[in-house]
Design brief:
By secondary structure, the chain is an alpha/beta fold. The chain has a single domain (about 20-275), classed as Spore Coat Polysaccharide Biosynthesis Protein SpsA, Chain A (Alpha-Beta Complex), CATH 3.90.550. The chain is built from 13 helices and 13 strands. Strands 1, 4, 5, 6, 8, 9, 10, 11 and 12 form a 9-stranded mixed β-sheet that branches. A two-stranded antiparallel sheet has the order 2-3. It has a two-stranded antiparallel sheet with strand order 7-13. Mean pLDDT is about 90; it is low at about 5-10.
C-alpha cells in the first residue's frame, strides 16, 4: 500500500484524532557553528539555543508541521518538550495559539531518547491509537492522512532515493537513518537503528527508511519501558518497535512512500527548507 491510499472511511472509529510530536531534543547539531551558513538575527539566536521548532522558515517550522497535521484531520497534538523549553510553550499557548488543532504538552525531564519521549505522552494518549513523529521533519499532509486512516498500527517508510531527490536530505545523512525490511504481506519485518556499513550492504539499497512516523496503540508503551540504553546512552524508539515485533508479536502495516521529507536538523538545512516551504500556507 502506498502512502496516500485511502484505508478506511473518514467517519470510521479507527481514524486517528491524536498525534504526539517529539520535540525534546537538545538541538546539538543545530547549535554547531557552520561558517558557510549565513542566518538572520532571529534564526541565529534560535539556532544557537537549539530551538528548532521555532526557527523561522517563513513562519516557525513547527507551525508548518502542525498545519500539515490539521490539514490531514488530526484534532489534538501533544508536544513532548523539556522543562527548559518555555519559549515553545509560551508561543503555542499565549503568543500564537493554533486555530485548527488543540495543543497540549508533556514534559520529558531528561533527553533520554525517543522511546522515553513517547512514554512521556502516555497520559495524553489515554489508551487511544495515536500518531508519533519528529518535530524537525515535515512531510506532506497526504502522508499523514494515509496513516491516520490506516485502521491499524503501522508506519510510513520512505524510499531512499525519494528522500534524497525530493527532500533536502543528503545521501550521507540518509545512511544514518533506521532501515527496514518489509514482508510479503506489507508488514514490518525488522528495523535497525543507526545501521553500520555491513548492514547497509547486506540489506541493499532497496531497504526502506524510517523517518520515525508511526501509528501506535497503547501497547507500545510496555515495549518502550523495556528498551535498554543504546551505545549512545539513549532509549530509542526503533529498538522498542523491534522488541515489540520479536517478543510481543505486534504487527505494523507498512505504507511505502515515494515523497520527500524536509529535515531541519542543521544550520545548513535552513535555507533549503525555507525555499521548499515557500508558497505552502501554514495555518495550524
Amino acid at each position: 500500500m502506498n502512502a496516500g491510499d485511502e484505508a478506511c472511511a473518514p467517519g470510521d472509529s479507527a481514524v486517528l484524532r491524536k498525534a504526539v510530536i517529539l520535540a525534546r531534543g537538545l538541538g546539538k547539531r543545530m547549535r554547531e557553528w557552520d561558517a558557510e551558513t549565513v542566518l538572520n538575527s532571529d534564526q541565529s539566536a534560535l539556532a544557537d539555543a537549539g530551538i528548532k521548532a521555532l526557527l523561522p522558515v517563513g513562519r516557525p517550522f513547527l507551525d508548518h508541521v502542525l498545519s500539515a497535521l490539521a490539514d490531514a484531520g488530526y484534532e489534538q497534538v501533544c508536544l513532548v518538550i523539556g522543562p527548559e523549553h518555555r519559549a515553545v510553550r509560551e508561543y503555542y499557548t499565549v503568543t500564537t495559539p493554533p486555530r485548527r488543532i488543540r495543543v497540549s504538552f508533556a514534559i520529558q525531564a531528561r533527553p533520554l531518547g525517543t522511546a522515553d519521549a513517547v512514554l512521556a505522552a502516555e497520559e495524553f494518549v489515554a489508551d487511544r491509537e495515536f500518531l508519533v513523529m519528529n518535530s524537525d521533519n515535515y512531510c506532506p499532509p497526504s502522508v499523514l492522512l494515509a496513516l491516520r486512516t490506516l485502521g491499524e498500527p503501522g508506519a510510513v517508510l520512505f524510499e531512499r532515493e525519494a528522500l534524497i531527490r525530493k527532500g533536502n536530505i543528503p545521501e550521507g545523512r540518509v545512511k544514518s537513518y533506521a532501515i527496514c525490511r518489509i514482508d510479503s504481506d506489507d508488514y514490518l519485518e525488522d528495523i535497525i537503528e543507526k545501521p553500520d556499513e555491513a548492514t547497509l550492504r547486506s540489506w541493499g539499497k532497496d531497504a526502506f527508511i524510517s523517518m520515525n512516523i508511526w501509528r501506535f496503540t497503547s501497547a507500545i508503551f510496555e515495549a518502550c519501558r523495556r528498551v535498554p540504553l543504546s551505545p549512545r546512552e539513549e532509549l530509542e524508539l526503533p529498538v522498542a518497535v523491534r522488541e515489540a515485533i520479536r517478543t510481543r508479536r505486534m504487527r505494523f502495516r507498512v505504507l511505502r512512500c515515494y515523497e520527500g521529507v524536509l529535515d531541519l536538523s542543521r544550520r545548513a538545512d535552513i535555507a533549503a527548507v525555507t525555499e521548499k516551504l515557500r508558497g505552502i500556507q501554514a495555518d495550524p
